[in-house]
Design a protein that fits this description.
Helix content: 40-55%
Strand content: 5-15%
Strand order of the largest sheet: 3-2-1-4-5-6-7
Shape: globular
Radius of gyration: 29 Å
Number of helices: 21
Distance between the termini: 27 Å
Structural class: alpha/beta
Largest sheet: 7 strands, parallel
Length: 607
């Protein structure tokens, strides 16, 4: 040895992925970003809200869950100002609960006293006096109960107004705050953002990151303020805003929420060092609004590419004789005998021919909408290790399909055999998701079952859908299942026949390929989508499903029937078109990690 000491290896740059999702375990985007950064050699910490579910386990990623009490946001509801409209309302939630609880206990005590008077013997004179006193007590209780219920009703009305401040006076206050506070108006209009700062801020400071990946608009301000504090301490922190929630296009709950969102974005978006989004159209919208020199990078929230699950094509054998029921591989060149679906009302030939014709003309526009926009790395950016190329043809080798959960996939979870047609929807149940269209189509698709894989099976909106299914007499064919882990979703869904995206026409639905659409694709499921712009164009170009008019039940029935008559053809479209190698995380993560490398190199942090 020459006696010279080898230089110490520099520590890996610290990357912090911040998520404000209500359920960190279901935030597939945050999971994929964190795992990709860890695989590229960064020291990665994922920060999110604490909830009742177990924390996600991600290889190479430290997960920190933070309690967000919501003290500031809850104060408005807990202590509403009665004002002139509700002068009798209780002044706080504590008083409201105390008075209503006392009223309920008083009612039970009076019932007990009445029972006592009827079962215990007393001389007639004493019995009469006791009865008279009891009657007076009951009359007092009625008067007190009326007064308590009146004040409670006014309190509850005041709380409702606090939670949904959409009255004329509320709009005046919102406009006044917006004019006077301007970029700081969000502090007054949306105190929950301050709750987020109080909970997340100390964690971000303690982690001392070199780069913060802020998932969603609500996390952006927390990240920007942490970067400012770090700069004051002599450290440089880069902030990447992952604007995949399309916040500027998503309808707000009311004028106050819209004003708070605009103020928050105006205050913090310009301070982000880079912007990432999930669709080119929204990226163009953000570039125009922010007037940024660095255009937003488009990164689809796509699953990891894997070999097709072995059971993905089992339903294709449906309708054949027992001797010819060998399962066809997804993408194999066999054709299944066409099967007419009761109530479909159209033949597969007419429908699919129309789809092929439309696809030929729509290919160019669809690819412009759905493909990831190439990114030019920053000058002097360091090479990124263990990263997939941005080009689809240079994609890393596919990984093995993740194991299906113990439930054995969605079909087994529903208790259905391989010969039962099954459509699946994975995602939220808000009315604009269009699930009512699927429920109302079930009576016209006689043997079809529907599985809704939802975040919370106990949600009130799920109950309303179940009630509607019961009223239509198809409750036995509607199955509600809880989410599985993001990594298992394609394998879990693969045993179904069709994946549906029946969303309504809203700005954010028009411009992006929904995560569930990409998950259906990696499950090799034919799709039935509403005629929202991006997903309809992608479907017509790829040939992997049918398009129907949004909120049109009859057209939904037609599209489902057309797909069911020729499942192998629609499945083969994935392998024929090669879109899965573009719509996969291995391909999408490459430009994102190149962006990380460029930003960290600018700040002097290189692994």
């Amino acid at each position: 040895m020459d006696g010279t000491a080898s230089p110490a290896r520099r520590a890996a740059p610290r990357v912090l992925v911040v998520s404000d999702s209500a359920a960190l375990g279901h935030d597939s985007r945050a999971h994929r970003v964190a795992r990709a950064a860890a695989a590229a050699g960064y020291d990665v910490t994922l920060v999110g809200r604490a909830d009742d579910s177990p924390p996600p386990v991600l290889p190479g990623v430290t997960v920190r869950r933070v309690d967000v009490p919501g003290t500031l946001a809850g104060y408005r509801a807990a202590r509403p100002r009665p004002g002139l409209r509700w002068p009798l309302a209780y002044r706080s939630a504590e008083v409201h609960h105390h008075r209503t609880a006392r009223l309920a206990v008083r009612a039970r005590m009076l019932r007990t006293r009445e029972a006592e008077l009827s079962v215990r013997y007393r001389p007639l004179s004493r019995q009469a006096v006791a009865r008279a006193i009891h009657v007076a007590a009951r009359l007092g209780h009625v008067l007190r109960g009326t007064w308590t219920r009146l004040r409670a009703a006014q309190y509850e009305a005041a709380v409702r107004r606090r939670l949904t401040p959409d009255g004329a006076l509320d709009d005046v206050v919102t406009a006044f705050v917006g004019l006077t506070a301007r970029r700081r108006a969000w502090r007054r209009l949306d105190p929950s953002l301050l709750d987020l700062e109080a909970a997340y801020g100390p964690v971000l400071d303690a982690c001392r990151p070199h780069l913060i990946h802020a998932r969603g608009r609500r996390s952006l301000g927390v990240a920007v303020r942490a970067a400012v504090r770090a700069e004051a301490a002599g450290r440089t922190v880069k902030v990447v805003w992952d604007a995949t929630d399309c916040s500027a296009l998503t309808p707000a709950a009311g004028r106050r929420a819209a004003a708070a969102r605009e103020s928050d974005e105006r205050a913090h978006a310009e301070q982000a060092d880079a912007v990432v989004t999930a669709c080119a159209a929204y990226g163009d919208h953000l570039a125009a609004r922010l007037q940024s020199a660095r255009p937003p990078l488009v990164v689809l929230n796509a699953p990891v590419y894997a070999d097709a699950p072995a059971h993905a094509s089992a339903p294709e054998a449906r309708g054949r004789s027992a001797g010819a029921a060998a399962r066809a591989s997804a993408g194999a060149g066999v054709s299944a005998a066409p099967r007419a679906t009761a109530g479909a009302g159209v033949t597969a030939a007419a429908t699919t021919a129309a789809g092929v014709t439309a696809a030929a003309g729509a290919t160019a526009s669809a690819r412009a909408i759905t493909s990831a926009r190439p990114v030019t790395p920053a000058r002097g950016s360091a090479p990124v290790r263990n990263v997939a190329s941005a080009r689809a043809e240079a994609m890393v080798a596919p990984v093995a399909a993740p194991p299906v959960t113990a439930r054995g996939g969605v079909r087994a979870a529903c208790g259905l055999g391989p010969d039962v047609p099954l459509l699946v929807h994975s995602g939220g149940v808000a009315p604009e998701r269009g699930l009512l269209t699927a429920v109302e189509a079930l009576p016209k698709l006689y043997d079809l079952h529907a599985a809704f894989v939802v975040p919370d099976p106990g949600d009130e909106r799920v109950r309303l859908l179940a009630d509607r299914a019961g009223a239509l007499g198809v409750a036995a064919r509607l199955h509600v299942l809880p989410y599985t882990t993001p990594e298992e979703v394609p394998a879990f869904l693969a045993s179904a026949d069709i994946g549906v995206v029946p969303v309504h026409h809203l700005p954010h639905h028009e411009v992006t390929l929904a995560t569930r659409y990409l998950e259906y694709a990696h499950a090799r499921l034919p799709v039935v989508v509403s005629d929202v712009r991006a997903m309809a164009a992608a479907t017509l170009a790829t040939g992997n499903g049918e398009v129907f008019r949004a909120a049109d039940t009859a057209d939904f029935v037609r599209a489902v029937g057309a797909v069911l008559t020729n499942l192998p053809r629609y499945r083969r479209a994935y392998e024929r078109s090669g879109v899965l190698r573009q719509w996969c995380w291995q391909t999408q993560a490459g430009p994102l990690l190149a962006l990380y490398a460029g930003l960290l190199d600018e700040a002097g942090h290189r692994a």
